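Holo prediction. Input below; ligand is calcium ion.
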Amino acid sequence: MAVRGFLRGIGGKNAMPQGASADGSERPLKPIAMGDGATRLQLLDEFEAGGIGWFWATDDQNRLIYLSPAAAANFQVSHEELIGRPLTSLFTLENGEDEEAAERPLPFLISARTKFANMTVKVDAGGDPRWWTISGKPYQDANGVFLGYRGGAKDITADFERQRDNTRAAHFDSLTGLANRNRMTRRLTAILTAYKAAKRSCALLMLDLDRFKAVNDTLGHPAGDELLKQVAQRLERIVGPKGEIGRLGGDEFQVILPDIDDRGDLGELAHRIIQMISQPYSLDGSRAIIGTSVGIAVAPYDGIEPSDLVKSADLALYAAKGGGRGQYRFYSNDLKDSAQQRREIEEDLRDALSRGELRMYYQPVVCSQTHKVKGFEALMRWEHPERGPISPAVFIPIAEDSNLIIALGEWAMRQACEDAAKWPADMTVSVNVSAQQFSTDSLPALVTNALASSGLKPRRLELEITESVFMGDAATTDAMFAKLKKIGVRLALDDFGTGYSSLGYLRKAPFDKIKIDQSFVRGSTEDDNSNSAIIAAIVSLADALDMETTAEGVEAMDELALVKKRGATLIQGFIFSRAVPQEEVLEKLADGNFVYEPNGPEKQRSQRRTLFRRIGVIHEDHRYEAVLRNLSRTGAMIEGLLEVPVGTDLVLDLGEGQLAICRVRRSQDATQGVEFETPLISDGADGLCTRHRISPYALAAAGMPLAALPPGHYAMPDRRGARPTDNRRFMQVDVGMGASRAA
Ligand code: C2E
Ligand code: CA
Ligand code: CA
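Structure of the complex:
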């Protein structure tokens, strides 16, 4: 009977026709009459007790005069104690992400005596918090006098918590607790939209961990997860409240930095991030070392819309990775081309070996006291049929990314051993072994084979390894070191001090030599530069551990004197010789003269790059065209203006909103040497850029509509066609490639 009654109640498909009973007899319907107060009250009681909903009432001072008993049971205090309390004291408001709800809080609505519906409130009366939704309506007497509120409430804890968890999952990365891609995209969009109107700037950093995959592979996924968490913590510590950090997935992170456009500051921040991320991690007993590359783009210069800015930061990241790891890079327009170039190089590199385009060159390493050559470092050279020579600094990282490094490294090892076998008996050859090669099981076999087929003694082969091999599983690394040592080859730690420096493994690993990176040699002779002290420290450390030291990249006489004074045992650098082909090595060694004479400038000058780039030169209110011949942090050489007096102030327009104020220091015919008022800063790789840029908004104000600016193309307005103004002061000459002729 009960079931039948239920079915009848819901009027389901199988329900009996209304008024019909199972035995077919008619039963009269008994509606509850509106006047039947007692039955209606009973209905309400049942409703209240059933937990479907509750009632509450307040008096004209908003004190509670009624609350359904089942609702009151949520509170730790008795029903009697609740009565008389202000309604708003029972709840805290819970708006979650709903910013609009925060605008009109409950106490405000109540004091305004307005009706409210479905406000979510938190009942925090000790124990687990509960969430209710409450509605209320002011209640008046016949004369419109306010008597209090009458309202309902309902427990929605389960729904609320489910929704809150969903929201969290939709916005945050469960592993690290950082914002996820979805939230970062929304934040970036919101910030850029607001900033567009306010003409404010916003920087975007893209990070990608170097060699994270190796940690995951060797130590397992739980360790990889732990590593990501620690990376997130380090990032939070560095970035702090200045920005918002997100994990986009995998080992990709993003940082939004509102109101920052100083590329000097951004470069420093990126550098700090790289340093911090590169410190060793402790993962459940294992040690791991990874690195990171950082790409930086700044709105509005490098993109106004979120997707453009992200694309720019991505390209910058790609370039940072391409330039070797552990670097940062600012976006610039030429990166678009270089990304394409990189793909093409990778393509061609696949065939370079079989086409015989690769060669090994050898750079002498000389004794710092006698200048007698002790050995040579084998360096790979690629003569590209169309592009000409391509630097290994460019193609080796590409080879590492595409796994081609294994084949290239194998070839280099065999070739170097074969060539070295033809040198005098005590001369060593140093071969670079990339971290990837180091982690392949076949390396010891390759070394043994190369030695056997060339007949080179193991002691004459030195493997140059960088600090990056110390990441991942320490046991595997140690085993590899042991195998190589057993063969009898020498081991050198290359580029010491640049990346993953930690002194711990120096003591453990069986190195015969430390190579002091050229970045320490460069600038070591300048005043107030700490590099000289660092060189001294590395040398004494090596002495203590009974290792040799090679100072790399010595170019100038003052550098030579300094590294000698600091005690480096060996020297390698352009001051003695660049890397040369095997024929030249044999020629040099043939007459038995193993001594190299130093040959280089007296002093190391601020590094200048030779360039040929068209730029704008602004003087007073005239804009000229000139060619940038070389560029350093502190100055440049320009060509194209005739007889500009020394002392003239100019503005160089380097493109993309980069204006550099400078003064002419030297001047001859159409060539001027200028000094910048504010030194340029590094773009993270080999480039230089200005700290600040002229915003595209300023350009727009100068007559260039914003909408017409394609993303990232903020060249200065081209006024070539404009008529020269009266105060044009200098003759502009046309500069051809290589030569400077008057037009
Ligand atoms: P690296 O191992 O640090 O090699 C030293 C680099 O410094 C060489 O650049 C060398 O030409 C350059 N160098 C030497 N003396 C001076 C100097 O006085 N001034 C300056 N400015 N540079 C100097 P290179 O040949 O362009 O090689 C670049 C990098 O490419 C190497 O750095 C190494 O990491 C990688 N590489 C080159 N050949 C091989 C190879 O066969 N296998 C692997 N895995 N990597 C290689
Ligand atoms: Ca090397
Ligand atoms: Ca090196």
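The first helix runs from residue 2 to 10. That is the main takeaway for now.
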